[in-house]
Design brief:
Number of strands: 10
Largest sheet: 4 strands, mixed
Order of helices and strands: EHEEEEEEHEEE
Oligomer: single chain
Shape: globular
Strand content: 35-45%
Length: 149
């Protein structure tokens, strides 16, 4: 895959109006095409599509990661650090439903990242993260920086 590749993700929602308020209003995603059963959003250049399917909403399967219950089914974005902080503040101001409050993982180590998980009005889990050093996005060595592995 190239850096120019974009992803497309379709997901269920229980109410298109609530989806528009969250994705368009809170997250600031521009709306694309739509009809009575679905709506496209520009998710930082990627196409996500909220499909009206209330019976498919609110999966709650979780895995333990760093002492947190991380939703198995989730999607999100890797943001620049400053954009992550801006979004964190925007989500807090909107009274968003955080699954995992914003925090920094691997602080001072390779792979240091800010992360947060939030649910949309239909129960879909989203993760937003940022890396101090984007070359560490796929790093396997998580020893403290400057120390031998």
């Amino acid at each position: 895959m190239t850096a120019a590749s974009r992803f497309h993700l379709a997901f269920p929602v229980h109410d298109l109006g609530a989806a528009r308020r969250f994705y368009g209003g809170v997250l600031g995603c521009e709306e694309g095409r739509s009809n009575d059963h679905w709506v496209d959003f520009d998710f930082d250049g990627h196409q996500i599509v909220a499909h009206l399917a209330p019976e498919e909403c609110d999966s709650r399967a979780e895995n333990a990661v760093d002492g947190h219950a991380v939703p198995v089914r989730h999607f999100g974005l890797l943001l620049e650090w400053e954009k992550w902080e801006t979004l964190r503040d925007r989500l807090k101001a909107a009274g968003s439903d955080f699954i995992i409050e914003p925090y920094v993982r691997f602080e001072g180590r390779a792979g240091e990242q800010a992360t947060m998980f939030v649910r949309d009005p239909s129960g879909n889990a989203l993760e937003f993260k940022a890396f101090r050093d984007e070359s560490m996005i796929f790093a396997k060595d998580l020893t403290p920086q400057g120390e031998p592995a």
